[in-house]
Design brief:
The chain is mainly alpha-helical and 240 residues long. 68% of the residues lie in helices and 0% in strands. It has seven helices and no strands. The longest helix has 32 residues.
Length: 240
């Protein structure tokens, strides 16, 4: 008789080692990267962050190509259309062109969206699954790109950036509504909440959680903008 032992890979639990360890490692990496970048030329600063963005994008694309050929791939659930995955694919365009209007939109989308994913991870298969690494590379990588932009390139959003980002988000939401209706899908969780715990659990059932989420987006964006505003006010007061 041969005893076969299998190891189940369970959903990542909040505050578990699988949750906290990658956050700690990414924080140390981001701080070290920013400190190093401040000591090198602007050309090298641009090159480093662009390489990181390409790595994030290639990670997502590779993950989905692998899924297409190794598992049943369902376009109703598996396309990289959730906000963070889509941003991960597109982020090299931002780091290459480095347009300020892109920063205005992305700084709020990424900080608001990825922080929620970092605090309450939605990872069905934990370490050492491919999805586990893909998830953290995307969420923590996008945050690193934004903080790099703020502290190395010294980009700062303006008050009007809050509303630009909000309006751009509505375009994305409408696009996802159309795709969800076409595919009978649930991208951006517009038809039902994620299976794992999330802040949406406190906003009621469908469609109320969508309405509540829309109502708090601008206050949330304003909260993200607040440190930039305080920093600008302090800088002006010191210059007088």
């Amino acid at each position: 008789m041969i005893l076969i032992i299998t190891t189940a890979i369970d959903r990542v639990l909040i505050l578990s080692l699988e949750h906290l360890l990658p956050i700690g490692l990414a924080f140390c990496f981001a701080v070290a990267l920013i400190m190093y970048a401040k000591r090198i030329s602007s050309e090298n600063q641009q090159r480093i962050i662009h390489y990181l963005a390409i790595f994030i994008s290639v990670t997502v694309i590779t993950f989905h190509v692998y899924r297409m050929f190794s598992t049943p791939y369902n376009i109703r659930t598996d396309l990289p259309l959730y906000l963070c995955s889509l941003l991960a694919i597109l982020i090299p365009f931002y780091t290459y062109y480095k347009k300020y209007w892109m920063f205005e939109i992305l700084v709020f989308w990424i900080i608001a969206g990825t922080l929620q994913g970092v605090i309450t991870p939605d990872i069905a298969d934990g370490f050492p699954s491919l999805d586990y690494f893909r998830y953290w590379i995307v969420h923590l990588g996008l945050l690193t790109v934004m903080f790099y932009s703020v502290f190395v390139f010294e980009l700062k959003p303006k008050l009007k950036s809050v509303f630009k980002s909000f309006l751009a988000l509505q375009v994305y939401v409408l696009l996802m509504v159309a795709i969800n209706n076409l595919l009978d899908a649930n991208y951006f969780y517009l038809n039902r909440k994620p299976a794992s715990a999330s802040v949406l659990d406190y906003f009621g059932d469908w469609p109320y959680y969508i309405i509540v989420a829309q109502l708090i987006i601008i206050p949330l964006f304003l909260l993200i903008y607040l440190p930039f505003y305080i920093s600008e006010v302090n800088k002006k007061s010191l210059s007088k």
